[in-house]
UniProtKB/TrEMBL annotation:
InterPro entries: ACOX_C_alpha1 (IPR055060), Acyl-CoA_ox_N (IPR029320), Acyl-CoA_Oxase/DH_mid-dom (IPR006091), Acyl-CoA_Oxase/DH_mid-dom_sf (IPR046373), Acyl-CoA_oxidase (IPR012258), Acyl-CoA_oxidase_C (IPR002655), AcylCo_DH-like_C (IPR036250), AcylCoA_DH/ox_N_sf (IPR037069). This is Acyl-coenzyme A oxidase. GO terms for cellular component: peroxisome. SUPFAM superfamilies: Acyl-CoA dehydrogenase C-terminal domain-like, Acyl-CoA dehydrogenase NM domain-like. Pfam families: ACOX, ACOX_C_alpha1, Acyl-CoA_dh_M, Acyl-CoA_ox_N. It comes from the Eukaryota.
Amino acid sequence: MESIDYLAEERKKAEFNVDEMKIVWAGSRRAFEVSDYISKLVADDPDLSFIFIECHRGIQGFSKEERTMLPRKELFKNTLRKSAYSWKHIIDHQLSEEEAERLRYFVDEPAFIDSHLGVFIPAIKGQGTKEQLKKWLPLAYKMQIIGCYAQTELGHGSNVQGLETTATFDPRTDEFVIHSPTLTSSKWWPGGLGKVSTHAIVYARLITDGKDHGINGFIVQLRSLEDHKPLPGITVGDIGTKFGNGAYNTMDNGVLRFDHVRIPRDQMLMRVAQVTKDGKYVQSDVPRQLLYESMVYTRQALVTYASGALSRAVCIATRYSAVRRQFGSQNGGQEIQVIDYKTQQSRLFPLLASAYAFRFVGEWLKWFYTDVTQRLQANDFSTLPELHATTAGIKSLTTTATADGIEECRKLCGGHGYLCSSGLPELYAVYVPACTFEGDNVVLLLQVARFLMKTVSQLSSGKKPTGTIAYMGKIEHLMQCRSDVEQAKDWLKPSAILEAFEARATRMSVACAQSLSKFDNPEEGFQELAPDLVEAALAHCQLIVVSKFIEKLQQDIPGEGIKQQLEVLCCIYALFLLHKHHGDFLVTGYITSKQGLFANEQLRALYTQVRPNAVSLADAFNHTDHFLGSILGRYDGNVYPKLYEAAWKDPLNESDVPDGFDEYIRPLLKQQLQTARL
Ligand SMILES: CC/C=C\C/C=C\C/C=C\C/C=C\CCCCC(=O)SCCNC(=O)CCNC(=O)[C@H](O)C(C)(C)COP(=O)(O)OP(=O)(O)OC[C@H]1O[C@@H](n2cnc3c(N)ncnc32)[C@H](O)[C@@H]1OP(=O)(O)O
Ligand SMILES: Cc1cc2nc3c(=O)[nH]c(=O)nc-3n(C[C@H](O)[C@H](O)[C@H](O)COP(=O)(O)OP(=O)(O)OC[C@H]3O[C@@H](n4cnc5c(N)ncnc54)[C@H](O)[C@@H]3O)c2cc1C
């Protein structure tokens, strides 16, 4: 049956070329083509898009929207099936690394393979010696071993230096003895550990000759490669069901304990430090912080993932807001589309703009990460602190805003957003741990704050700040300048926006540094002022996102109307932040309240400008209906019949009279009948 496009009228309003915008969103024509091809391949192959479960009726298939109704054990087994099937497809069709990554992304179920490819392999790459890379990477790439990243413990996650697991060198046998001395030292949370991984990178305190050298990474085999049973001395299992139905429960986050498990000496990852055969601890000339390199890698990757998750929620909420109508019907005509309410626009359009902003900052961060990694290879470590602060900060900003944004999109869809078939509850449940994993977002902003305080303290020594903190080099100007905005449209100038964000970030950092200097004990001061420091760090990170959006607009961006749309989105993103954090800009004395009101006035005008393009800007994300997994976000907008149809598929509707009627409802009704007769 031919489908009707209920959003066709919306699509006709677009003032830009949607196909060209798809390429801008994807990053390049090639990236678009790969994503487009793989997303359709997944959507069209039932083995990848459906969940198959053995039940009393035989094998039954469920669509993605129905996933939240299924029991965890069945879902988990199905995820194993899909991972194996995907892997076979990757090998049989000789997919490139990029295509394989896209396949995993569009299958869209958290799985052990994410930890294997996303954290285990990067950890070996970052911390292994050449010989170790040569030995372990081919095994990992061919999936002859499956690995996870076992850092966090029951008692410690954020405080990596506080981990308790020990790796004691035994020179007699040339081995390390890995041990969990306390309950709190049990490894707890690693994805893929619970039921699948054969190996783990285990972070443990390195002890030689009775001396504790701090945390190091070790490759430890956990399970037999024959029968998958835990090896002697190893206790391993899943930590239990997590938030939400379906959601992250396809991942086997695990618990792991060691009882004096022996591994050969060459399974210590030795790029940063080595232990010799006679037990001597030798530190390399690379900084110790390289032990944390894989966290930096994953944090930068999570930024692009944030834009992906936010774009899904925004796509659902935008399409549905154009379909949904409430109030204002005159003479029997149609009611108003809820997307035309200014309040709906003021909640939705900043999120649409944020999705684009996060995509561009993610693109830039990937470039920055690659650049620094190349320098590290050449033993230039000068940009490592900036990379750490930037990945930590932008991961924190984007994942918090994305998780909050998904929830806002759910509310923007009214009651129907609360149905699992809207796709939004599960998207939120899957996504929200990104605010915690790979570093709690507040802990990460405190790292940014330390970097900023160090930068401010070094300004007087004449050290010239570069890169993302180059703006601090203009400190004298930024501390005393005032906004010259005289009317609302002056806020459209990139220079006006940029100076506002630079002045605010500088002044907030300097204010913190001044407050800190009043403490005799700087560490005590840091703890006391932590909430202000977090706000200063956020101001710095928001400046980075805004400035990278502006830089993107300075590039040559071809395509009809594309640049104009991006300019509107960039101003919405920046002015929305200015409006939300109005207090910061006022208190630091950069703007007057009148200039703040101008920003808000301009923001409303921008909402009107983006309105006719909203559905097409969401289409430019190029999400298939399968990937969205949402009745509200369907491309054709055919929401009501599909919602109605889906309700009848709920297990509760398998019979008119529910199980339990005879035991629990009938007696109640009888009792009422008797009372009525009395
Ligand atoms: C839904 C999923 C979607 C998509 C996934 C997408 C892509 C990825 C694919 C798969 C992954 C899937 C899921 C993710 C799984 C999540 C895995 C994990 O969670 S692993 C565990 C992560 N754990 C943490 O992040 C712990 C956080 N804590 C820390 O990082 C550190 O302990 C700390 C908070 C930074 C503090 O460290 P420490 O106590 O050592 O620090 P100091 O503050 O004293 O710092 C000393 C010195 O070092 C510098 N520094 C700290 N960290 C780094 C670093 N990473 N790199 C470089 N330098 C660093 C710090 O700035 C100090 O410098 P100094 O001031 O001395 O110059
Ligand atoms: C779904 C999921 C998957 C994960 N996967 C892995 C994995 O594969 N491998 C792995 O090793 N780990 C994994 N983790 C663990 C994760 O990395 C940690 O949970 C995370 O780093 C946070 O640490 P924590 O749990 O110790 O939080 P805590 O540090 O205990 O945080 C609790 C609260 O204390 C606050 N807090 C902590 N320290 C400070 C401070 N210094 N100043 C101010 N406030 C502070 C935090 O902001 C937070 O509000 C995973 C976690 C989840 C949820």
